[in-house]
Amino acid sequence: MNSTHKTKAPNYGILAVLMIGAFIAFLNNTLLNIALPSIMTDLKIETTTVQWLTTGFMLVNGILIPTTAYLIQKYSVRVLFIAAMSLFLLGTVVAGLSHVFPLLLAGRMLQASGTAIMMPLLMNVMLVSFPVEKRGAAMGIFGLILMAAPAIGPTLSGWIIEHYDWRMLFHFVTPIAALVLLLGILLLKDKKEKVNIRLDILSLLLSSAGFGGILYGFSSAGNKGWGNPLVYGTIIVGVVSLTTFILRQSKLERPMLNFSIFKYPMFALSSSITMVLNMAMFSGMLLLPIYVQTIRGISPFDAGLLMLPGALVMAFMSPITGRLFDKFGGRVLAITGLSITVITTYLFSTLSLDSTYSYLVVLNAIRMLGISMVMMPVSTNGLNQLPAKFYPHGTAMNNTLNQVSGAIGTALLVTLMSNRTESTATTLAAELGVSAAEAQQQIMIESMLKGINFAFFISSIIAIVALILAFFIKRATPQDGPIEIKPSDDNEQNVVPNLGT
């Protein structure tokens, strides 16, 4: 598996091990969404707290993904895979044994650090394993395998939670992760010559403080209020750190993230659209399970089944949208998909206590259809405008911004939901002549419903912004000829193909 200038015949056994590792990591993330209401009840925590299991995971990914280019250049596939799977396995064990939220969150952070290394590593190995003419088909199969995780994850999670404790989700993954780690130790034999490159520690610290500060501020507003000094203080620190980070990257010979690629208008536009859409999309994955289980009392298994058709739609649409993009371009698909997304997200803002199960299934599936028509075509169109030498930088930037925007969007919308829930509960309690603390369970259910509807309404407005931007999309062509990625001394290890995620 040494990275060389010649593309060797792929070792399918090793690729299978790497794929199983990535699949388990991706599956573990999709298992947790359905479990959030159960975790809230068991650990006696609020929505604004439990959402850190999702936003924190994405934030760690967003911070670490830029460092993977350095890691892949510096270390062999064997070393990185063993390190990634070890971190993931350790995090899974810690989370499975946790009885307090901080320990559970620590386990999730460890899992995220392993996942952040594993995904770009696998994509890079596939890139150097297949010739150019076969990479498309190989990445298509890889995409379909990974799409199976969100398809089976929620349903499997619902069944496990209905019959066992939520910790069984982690206990279920632990032996599989241990087996994959063992196979990696036995099968991966590649070595790497010593490479003299250094990680810019200051850039890593600035990006961590920037993204972390902004996210912590948005996430804390639900509990502390926007006027709390800790809330706006951390947001200010985050903005200043992020600005300093961006300015520093422009002065480095080998920047962690190359922000000069935003000079290409279609790439800048595509990044803006996918960031905005991520903010709206991830919130739905969090809010819908809370609505169906906490408010409607639907069992975890049925809640998982509710998400299944939408996940299957996204999986089946993945190769179809690729062909449609080649024929019609990104603009038509983006406008159509975003129009569907806006309408369905708005309809989610009108949920009631007696919205039918079939209505929720169909609406979620149609929403996922709309989103699937946008993500890959828009991202690919933006990358198509970049010169070949900037392709790895564009992919790294997309992956980072998608993770961070999803985390910030989720934190923001959950905060808005919590604030609206609290204010509505106080108002309803006052109308009934009781204090908020004395409010009946029905009042709290009504209040949470109002909060979720409000969050979906704001989410639909966010999606409208993406729709407006989509009208400015033009079919992009490379600035220096067709993009054909060939490994070289500068970029062979950090080129990561884009999957539109």
TrEMBL record:
Transmembrane segments: 12-32, 52-72, 79-104, 110-130, 137-156, 168-187, 199-218, 230-247, 267-291, 303-320, 332-351, 357-376, 452-473
Subcellular location: Cell membrane
InterPro entries from the UniProt entry: EmrB-like, MFS, MFS_dom, MFS_trans_sf
Pfam family, any one: MFS_1
Main subcellular location: membrane
Membrane topology classification: Multi-pass membrane protein
Coiled-coil residue spans: none
Keywords in alphabetical order: Cell membrane, Membrane, Transmembrane, Transmembrane helix, Transport
Domain Major facilitator superfamily (MFS) profile: 14-478
Protein family according to the UniProt entry: Belongs to the major facilitator superfamily. EmrB family.
Designated name of the protein: MDR family MFS transporter
Native source species: Aquibacillus rhizosphaerae
